[in-house]
Design a protein that fits this description.
The complex is a heterodimer of chains A (about 270) and B (about 300). Chain A is mainly α and about 270 residues long. Helix content of chain A is about 50%, strand content about 10%. Chain A folds into 2 domains: about 1-90, no CATH class; about 110-270, no CATH class. Chain A has helices at about 5-15, 25, 35-55, 60-65, 65-80, 95-100, 110-125, 135-140, 165-170, 205-215, 220-230, 240-245, 260-269, and strands spanning about 150-155, 160, 190-195, 200-205, 250-255. In chain A, the strands form 2 sheets. Chain A has a 3-stranded antiparallel sheet, with helices on both faces. In chain A, strands 1-5 form a two-stranded antiparallel sheet. Chain B is of the alpha/beta class and about 300 residues long. Chain B has a single domain, classed as TIM Barrel (Alpha-Beta Barrel), CATH 3.20.20.150. Helix content of chain B is about 40%, strand content about 15%. In chain B, β8 (about 220-225) and β9 form a beta hairpin. Chain B is globular. Classes of the chains: A mainly alpha (about 270), B alpha/beta (about 300). The interface between A and B is large, with 44 and 49 residues.
Chain lengths: ~270, ~300
């Protein structure tokens, strides 16, 4: 390793570590008696800049646990998961999982799921543009073949299920001054997050619709997706659902499936 | 969106020798609605490297009315590692799409190991690193098929192995690579104060013709033992001493595109606009003084 490579690696290790920098790094710095404090400016900047990026992505988590607790968690996260990309746009993708694994947060079991909404929101915000499904695309397919078609949910769409009323929690915390109380007894929620055109939408859907969309996302036919969804939610009415959502941006493409793929799928079922 | 695409690049690409402002997401709508009289806007390309969405749509819209400058923070010119081709590709895509009048990057590194600091870390100023930086600047310019400007950094520490003064390193890097310089007047002030360098000595060897852009920003003051360290946080108004230094600079080098940079504690657009007008006023006086003296 060249001298420069070694110095840059030592510098990076010291930025990441909560321990004081090693002597072999300090001995490289011009010493006016304040070399340690001067280095610490960089370590502090590194933690604060990346922690701020995390705070931008997770404003609701910050509101729920408070600024100080968020800063502590962000510092730990930045040290465990330093940025892997040059752009910070999607920095923090591991944060929901990180929150889920912290024993200190076990009293806030919904937190990681709320964080998943916030990540999905940002991911959809920066996603590539895709048109929504049009009536012409559907009209081009003979009606008797529709059931065997692949109906593809919008590429920006994320599906999130939680045991807790995370949609209500997320919504109540869109404003700083909200002090609404939400009972966790409201139970599970099923959300889809997507950006059909300009704006990201967070929608709560019924359980059957959620699993129907999730199955369609995996690429199986409309008929099979319905079969699966109706087993989990007998009240799910696909005709009603599609009459409301087929052209509202939930979907972006419909494809006639090749016979061969269908057979493979039937075997899997 | 479609409307923005059809009207794209109705504004010229060339960044004029006027005052510009850093473009912030919170100001997008105000700028589109009010069309303020500002020479140009600057963005960090890394904030527009998503696959789509609102930031690119807004930039497209604003580019229709204003020239823009791309001020990169992610190339890591001083890394011992090779440049990231993927990042260069993303940068080139933005250059092709938005036709910026200026493209710039910092004299620093942010990728020293397997991950990114997202902070601008200073270099060792010696011959070996100079050769490396020159080669990296040339690679970026070859890839983008255009000249870039290199910005003098703000710094809080120095390496013992440095044996070339920062200003000479910058000038040499620019001359050898064919790049221009982005003179950040606040950074000059911050680094000179932090390292007890003489501001006059710092500025004297920098040839006016190399300077393609000026940056102005605010800084914070941090107590460090019984000394003070200036922190370049772009989070407060530009201080009087930096305005004074700026005026001296443009008296010497003439009017150059000047950016008001603000990256944290972002104020309402009106507050930022006042600083832009202040710089604009200096630039105009400098142009008038220049006309008088050449008469």
């Amino acid at each position: 390793m060249s001298q420069l490579a070694e110095l840059q690696k030592t510098f990076c290790d010291a930025l990441l570590s909560p321990e004081p920098p090693p002597e072999r790094l300090l001995s490289e710095l011009v010493d006016d008696g304040l070399a340690l404090q001067r280095f610490n400016v960089y370590r502090n900047n590194f933690i604060v800049l990346n922690g701020d990026a995390l705070a931008d992505m997770y404003p609701v988590i910050k509101r729920l646990i408070g600024d100080e607790a968020f800063r502590v968690l962000a510092t730990a996260y930045v040290r465990q998961h330093p940025p892997q990309e040059r752009a910070l746009l999607l920095y923090g993708d591991q944060f929901p999982h990180f929150l889920a694994t912290l024993p200190e947060l076990s009293g806030l079991p919904y937190l990681a799921d709320v964080a998943r909404i916030e990540f999905a929101w940002t991911d959809a915000y920066h996603a590539e543009e895709h048109h929504r499904l049009t009536e012409e695309q559907v009209a081009a397919i003979p009606s008797e073949a529709l059931g065997q078609c692949q109906l593809l949910p919008h590429p920006t769409l994320h599906c999130i299920r939680s045991d807790y009323p995370i949609h209500a929690i997320w919504q109540a915390n869109q404003r700083c001054d909200s002090n609404e109380t939400i009972s966790l007894d409201q139970g599970e929620s099923h959300l889809i997050i997507l950006r059909p055109q300009h704006d990201v939408e967070v929608r709560e859907v019924i359980r059957g619709a959620f699993h129907f969309i999730k199955q369609l996302q995996a690429g199986i036919s409309i008929d099979l997706a319905y079969e699966f969804a109706s087993q989990l939610d007998s009240t799910f009415d696909p005709t009603l659902f599609l009459s409301q959502h087929l052209f509202d941006g939930t979907f972006y493409q419909i494809k006639q499936q090749p016979r061969r793929l269908l057979k493979q799928e039937l075997k899997r079922q | 969106m479609d409307e923005a695409i059809t009207s794209l690049r109705s504004a010229p690409a060339l960044v004029p020798s006027r005052a510009g402002a850093g473009l912030k997401a919170v100001h997008y709508q105000t700028i589109i609605d009010n069309q303020p009289d500002i020479g140009w806007f600057e963005v960090h390309p890394e904030n527009y490297m998503g696959r789509g969405g609102a930031p690119l749509r807004y930039l497209e819209r604003i580019r229709a009315d204003y020239p823009i400058s791309l001020h990169s923070v992610g190339t890591s010119l001083g890394s011992h590692q090779p440049l990231d081709q993927n990042h260069l590709r993303n940068l080139k895509k933005l250059v092709d799409r938005f036709q910026p009048g200026l493209v710039s990057e910092h004299l620093s590194w942010s990728h020293g190991y397997e991950w990114f600091t997202h902070d601008l870390i200073p270099l060792i100023y010696n011959q070996e690193v100079l050769d490396l930086v020159v080669s990296h600047i040339q690679q970026v310019q070859d890839y983008l098929q255009r000249q870039i400007l290199i910005e003098n950094p703000s710094s809080y520490l120095q390496f013992k192995q440095s044996d070339i003064p920062e200003q000479e390193f910058l000038v040499e890097a620019a001359k050898r690579s064919g790049a221009g310089l982005l003179l950040d007047v606040n950074n000059v002030y911050v680094s000179c104060r932090n390292h007890n360098w003489d501001i006059e000595e710092y500025l004297a060897p920098i040839p006016a013709e190399l300077i393609g852009e000026i940056h102005l920003a605010g800084h914070a003051v941090q107590a460090l033992g019984d000394q003070e360290l200036l922190i370049d946080d772009h989070g407060s108004p530009i201080c009087t001493a930096v305005w004074e230094l700026y005026r001296n600079c443009i008296d010497r080098i003439g009017s150059v595109p000047t950016l008001i940079e603000r990256d944290s504690n972002i104020p309402g657009f009106d507050t930022l606009y006042k600083e832009v007008q202040f710089a604009e006023h200096y630039l105009q006086s400098s142009r008038e003084a220049c006309r008088v003296s050449t008469r």
